[in-house]
Amino acid sequence: GRLNADNARFLLLAVLIVLYMLCGAAVFSAIELPTERETKERWEERLENFTRRHNLSRAELRHFLREYEEASVAGIRVDDIRPRWDFTGAFYFVGTVVSTIGFGMTTPATVGGKIFLIFYGLIGCAGTILFFNLFLERLITVIAYVMKSCHERQLRRKGVLPHNGRRGSGTSEVDSLAGWKPSVYYVMLILCVASLIISCCASAMYTPIEGWSYFDSLYFCFVAFSTIGFGDLVSSQNIRYESQGLYRFGNFVFILMGVCCIYSLFNVISIVIKQSINWILKKLACKCCHRCQRRLFHSRRNVVMPGNVRSRRNISIETDAVNESDTDGRRLSGEMISMKDFLASNKVSLAIMQKQLSETANGYPRQMGSNSKQNGFSGGVGALAIMNNRLAETSVDR
């Protein structure tokens, strides 16, 4: 039932993610591998020329470069940059930790710092994710309120709703508007536009101050706001800026707003992906059901169908959901069902039986004459008694 559907959805999503990763790996490998090979060849050529010019061995030069790599991990760079572990630098670092961005340009080098990071990040990341979820709830509330107000204005312009707000001829429209909710696709579109506006404004700030191109600034915004955090481009790392305090404050605000919007957008996109997966599973289930029905029809063409398989025109709204439950498949397959499923699937029959038993105990409201007794239609309990009483009524009428 529900568990099998969840497992099918999980497996289909896992397969789609693996296929998506394979396609992405193929595309990035085709695009980036030639550049990597060319860069490696140029580096080997420069290394060889440098060792010849300065009369150095390749082993000594490589040892020196390894020492520089170790210093680079600790935060040492060739260009002058701000200290990594003063208070402002440490605050920037913890911001990248709790937001799960993790640029990687600053990492703890001591054992104590690494141990503290484990416990600090555990609580900080959990708290920040909770903040993002609460932000998403309030953002969806605001978007729903605005879209509902616009929808009400459209209905008033069409004359469906009265302008004074009182109920008139459009009572049904007012009642339906009370439970109105915006479409997830509209919410996704609004979040896309908001994220794009924030990214464009932030890129306009980063381009002249950091010296990046506008495309690199947009690239940095997506990598930072989506909390991917490669670390190849990191803002606010130079030792001096014009209007440094104002720039760092703007950098903090843009990253905070961008992360919140992109996180909310990811959640909404995940809902759309889940709906798409459900649609795919539904289509696959329909095809499988059609095939099974055809096989069953051809194999059991002359067999009387079970009593619980009835025509759709004789099924009421209350019994429709019951007949479409998982108990039907289990009854047809011969599998045992629980008492709860049995009572749910036979709700209407049990109600009629309960009514008949109550009438039998308290005296049937319609007193049958001697003819009914002589015909032998009275007596019995349950469905048999209901049929007997109906036949008795028919006999009396005659």
From TrEMBL:
Residue runs in coiled coils: 33-60
Annotated localization: Cell membrane
GO biological processes: stabilization of membrane potential
Main localization category: membrane
MF GO annotations: metal ion binding; outward rectifier potassium channel activity; potassium ion leak channel activity
Cellular component, GO, one term: plasma membrane
Membrane topology per record: Multi-pass membrane protein
Similarity remark: Belongs to the two pore domain potassium channel (TC 1.A.1.8) family.
Protein name from the UniProt record: KCNKD protein
Organism in which the protein naturally occurs: Malurus elegans
